[in-house]
Amino acid sequence: MNFRAWRALATGAVALLCAGCAAFTAGERAPSAAPFDVLGRVLASHDGRAFSANFRWRYAVADSEVWLMSPVGQTLAHIAADAGGATLTAADRQEYRALSVESLTRQALGWPLPLTQLQHWIHGQAVPGDVIAAVARDAHGRLSLLEQDGWSIRYAYPDPPDGKQQPRRLDMKQGAQRILMVIDEWRPLSLP
Prior knowledge:
By secondary structure, this protein is an alpha+beta fold. The chain has a single domain (3-187), classed as outer membrane lipoprotein receptor (LolB), chain A (Clam), CATH 2.50.20. Helices cover 16% and strands 43% of the residues. It is globular, with a radius of gyration of 16 Å.
């Protein structure tokens, strides 16, 4: 894989799912969200560029991992973070490191992602303690629109409701930046 192709992959990979490591950014403002393990698909676009991949995001508060995969299941990038920092490992085994996932994102993309917030937003919840600009709920009382920290998040849920109240889709926008996440499976996360 040449450098240009790797850079495009790394940019997309980091842009799309490093949000999974949100608990490790400096200046965390809210309590950590409940642990989770999700499988899904993601599409991110910014400045006319777009990237899509399958993903697995395992969030366990003390550490977090994100795998970005091709449609046939090949790992394109693996992102891991804990209190010691963040690492992105590409398919060619090249590693990129930063003190936090947010720093890694800024280095690779030049613009920040809603890292700390996404660990709450993926559950269909506002970030505790942060100002909410707008909120709307559906007929079942679930969050359908949230505007918080400069982001507009629209939610879609399974129909008919599955009783778990977990979102199936998040469409997040801030200016020209858009991240669309489709959650295919919420899996139980066993913690030691």
